[in-house]
Structures are given as C-alpha cells and as structure tokens.
Amino acid sequence: MSVTIETLEKLERKVTLTLPIETIQNEVDQRLKKLSRQVKIDGFRPGKVPMNIVAQRYGYSVQYEVMNDKVGEAFSNIANEAKIRVAGAPRISEKEESPEGQLAFDAVFEVYPEVKLGDLSVVEVEKFHAEVNQEAIDKTIDILLKQRRTFNQKAKDAHAEVDDRVSVDFEGKVDGEPFQGGQASDFQFVVGEGQMLKEFEEAVKGMKTGESKTFPLSFPADYHGKDVAGKTADFMVSLKKIEASHLPELNETFVKSLGVATPTVEGLKADIEKNLQREVKSRLLSKNKQVVLDALVSKSELDLPKSIVQSELDRMVERARADLKQRGIKDADKAPIPEDLFRPQAESRVRLGLVVSELVSTNDLYAKPEQIKEHIEHLASSYEKPEEVSRWYYSNQQNLAEVEAMVVEENVTQYVLSKVKVKEKLVTFEELMGQA
Q: What is the pLDDT of residues 273-314, one digit of tens each?
C-alpha cells in the first residue's frame, strides 16, 4: 500500500490510499463462505446453500462492507503512523483511475489546529465577589412566608391595596382592535408583585369590588408580545373580587413545617444563610468562569475545523427539534431549522473547547482524584443523606465525567486568574441572584 499526503488549505488534508484487489476479494470470499453456513433460503437446508446463490444475493452488500472496513483500517493506520490528529470523519471517494491490480481512494479530512495561547499577563479581568448579609436572609424568610400565606375575601366597599390578591376581567385594544393575549376572565394576580405591568397595577389599586375602569397602557419597546411592543393600548378592567393576604407567624411551628434540622427561628436563619452562601459561591464561580473564558479565548489564535463545527451544529439542531417535539409541535422532525441560526454559538463552543483543551493539556490542569472526591462531597453536603448522593455520583462513569468537567473548569478559572491582572468588583446580593 502506497500513501501520499497532501495539504490542501489551512486544516484540510488529503490522503490517497491504494489497496490490492486480491486482498479485498479474499476477504469478500471468506465472509461469503461464513455467511453461507448461516443464511436461510427457501429450498435449501441450512449450511447447504450454493456459494453462487449466496454471492448473487449478498455479494454486493458484503463487498461494500469489506471496502468500508479495509479503507477505514488503512486510513486509521496511516493517521497513527503519521501521528495525525484527525478532526471529524474523513470524506472518502474512489478514484476514477487506479494502478493495475489496485483500488485507489482519496480521503479528505481535517486535522486539529495549532492553538496559540496569548499572553495572559497583559489581560485585565474583573473578579466578582458578593456577600450574604442580614437583608438577604430576611428577604428569603419573607419569600418563605409569602409562599405559605392565606387569602381572605375583603368587604365589598374595601379598596384594592398592595399585597391583595384580585380577580379581574379585562380586555385591551390597540387602535380599536383586540390583540392576542389582551383578554382574560377571572384572572388573578397579587397587587405589587410585578406579575402585571406597572400601569395595569396602578389602575387596579384603589378600585372596589364590582367597579370597572378604562385606562391607557403603554407597552415597553422590548415587551415579549411583539405585536404590541412599543404601542399604547386601551384597557377596560372589571374588578370581581379582592382578597387580603395573611402571612403565617414566624415561630417554631412555622419552622417545623419547613423540615429544618434545628426547628427554631435561629436554626432557620442559620440554615438559610448556609444555603445562600452555597448559592452565592456557585453563581460567583459561574460568573467569574465566564469572564475568564472570554479573556482566554480573546487572546488565543486558531483555525476552526469545519467538521467539528458541523458536528456541533448537527447536535444543536437535533436538540432544537427535540425541544419542539416536547412542546407538542406537529411534524417537529420535519420542521425547517436553518443551521445559520446556531452557527455563531456553535463556532464559539468549538473555539472555546479547543482553547480550554490546549490550556489544560499544556499546564496539566486535569481533574485530580482528590479534587473530584472533594467536589462530590461538596455537592452532596446540601442533601439530607449525603452518603447516598456520593454513591450516586460514583455509580456510573457519566456522573463522574460531569463532575470531572466541573473540576477542570474550576482549575482553568483559577489558573487564568493567577496569570491575569485581577480587578476586584463587589456586586450586591440582589444583582448576583438576578443574573442566571
């Protein structure tokens, strides 16, 4: 077998393979003989089917299978011997002309790029940090109380106030025409909680049961309903019922209903603080990691393998189809989903993956066993039976792979932060929790 390797452009390469026809035919004959002992054809006893009939019926498919296997094996051997890092699957085609007694094939493929990591010492990044204060703990308790509040109907002459739950009928029109989502009957919301636009809530405040009112409402330019975004609608609202909210008392009875390990008010506050600290740490890690990765990619140079980008595009389109199917969209499998919608994100993911992989291998930032163990213990500590959670993570390779990936990301984040110029930035608890 003779081999010629050509460089086409950037990451694209071409390998020309030649295989002896005799070798292929011998393998085809062997597989057909083996097949003849197994196939069942009407009119013949098992193992007694004539070879010419087996060859006539199965010869083409067996030859196709052998060709694929032999060419794939030859390509793999060449790649290993030449120490070529192949990116994606090769595109193999048979040549029109071949040497006598040979079959020749062209395999066009891509190689992984050289990744040039930039000088991180000249990069300045913001490292975010936040604190869990008493106000955050009090707000969390307030949320827990509101989740368990009760509502009692108010008298007919009572006015709707903040924290009241109201039931209304409403209809909105733009230029005298109703619009989708602009009508509802017996619609409930709590005044002051932001479920409705501010102008709507302000119109309802002060109304009594049985009253109706018309008012203009201006939709924001970025409103999710594109048909009415930036427009002004005329609404008519009728208030049908007002219910006053009643919060439970913050005492040991309430705390016990939450299943807190130490069923006291102080125990609840300590538990909330512990959980908030864990959540803050997780969000800070995520936020700082993104800043670090952005800085890392911005200082790196590489060409993107088209085949790897295409594979990522295929996965993203498939996930989009699965999402449509889950939402009950008819013929989701056939829905046209343009790849270009996902191309920037796919390219970004591939670029990031290659840069991170290079950084990890160059600086030995792989996850160590002790790091994986520590991370699993941290994840399990928030559960009632941490030992069972730990066993679950160790129960299969996929669970461990996910933890390993998280540890590697943390290693990369800490490494980059140790190399760049860090500017500390304090964010409030509310800002951090309001960001995904």
A: 988 998 898 899 889 999 999 999 999 999 999 999 999 999
CB atoms within 10 A of CB 223: 14
What domains appear along the chain, each with residue ranges and CATH number? 3-110 (3.30.70.1050), 150-246 (3.10.50.40), 255-433 (1.10.3120)
Q: How far apart, in whole angstroms, are the C-alpha atoms of residue 426 and residue 428?
A: 7
> Given 3-state DSSP classes, what are the helix, strand and coil percentages for the chain, each rounded to the nearest 5?
50, 25, 30
Rounded CA separation 141/358 (Å): 46
Q: Please, is 214 exposed, middle or buried when counting C-beta atoms within 10 Å of its C-beta (0-12, 13-18, 19+)? A: exposed
Q: Residues 319-334, buried b or exposed e (16+ Cβ, 10 A)?
A: eebeebeeeeeeebee
Neighbouring CB atoms inside 10 A of 375's CB total 17
Pull the structure tokens for residue 313. 């595009």
Measured from the Cβ of residue 257, the count of other Cβ atoms closer than 10 Å reads 12
Q: Inter-axis angle of helices 265-298 and 343-363, to 10 degrees?
A: 90
What is the number of other CB atoms lying within 10 angstroms of the CB of residue 239? 21
Whole-structure pTM value? 0.70
59-87 pLDDT, tens digit each: 888 888 988 898 888 889 888 888 889 99
Residue given tokens 């941290």 in the structure block: 378
Query: Hey, is 328 helix, strand or coil?
Result: coil
Pairing between β-strand 124-129 and β-strand 3-7 as defined by DSSP bridges = unpaired
Q: Residue 217 in contact with residue 204, Cβ under 8 Å?
A: no
